[in-house]
């Protein structure tokens, strides 16, 4: 659910059903992501200065600061576009326009970033397969997504440093329903180019309360890049 200080909402009624058409929410906008029973994600919060909803596209967007906080991850960014397909009950795409940093707590049950080098395939996707025996069960519970980081990608991992033009995380699992993407994913592949993270950017997003903060540790994986993040379903041709 979403809360905000104020907003303008246009509504329409069709076949006796009233639904929002277009909306603009302003001031301390918080998108509260509630985990679904049986899911493998934690409660999360997205903090925005404002957000615009266009019903024709099923699109939420903002040009302002974006801050995501959960027990497993923290993201600081500017600009967001999100399209959700209500009929298919799935995320069509999520684009973070300008990523400042993404901090991820490493999972003890999976490897988020592979230490293996790419084989030279143009797409850079060389380490992507999920466990086949679980496909039927997992398809019934949720969907899998691909995340693309691009342009001067820098990954500070406790065991390695990755420098890349493009970096994919494949088979990110999302529990069915309005839940955030899990940080548990298969290994990714990279195409290397040296760069350095920008450490001078400021966090301008609304601040979470103490109970909603991500506790940073020395074992966190930190990701930065110059061209944002693009998340789509695994079977999408957009990436």
Automatic annotation (TrEMBL):
Region (Disordered): 108-137, 193-218
Biased composition (Polar residues): 108-134, 196-211
Name by which UniProt lists this protein: Uncharacterized protein
Organism listed in the record: marine sediment metagenome
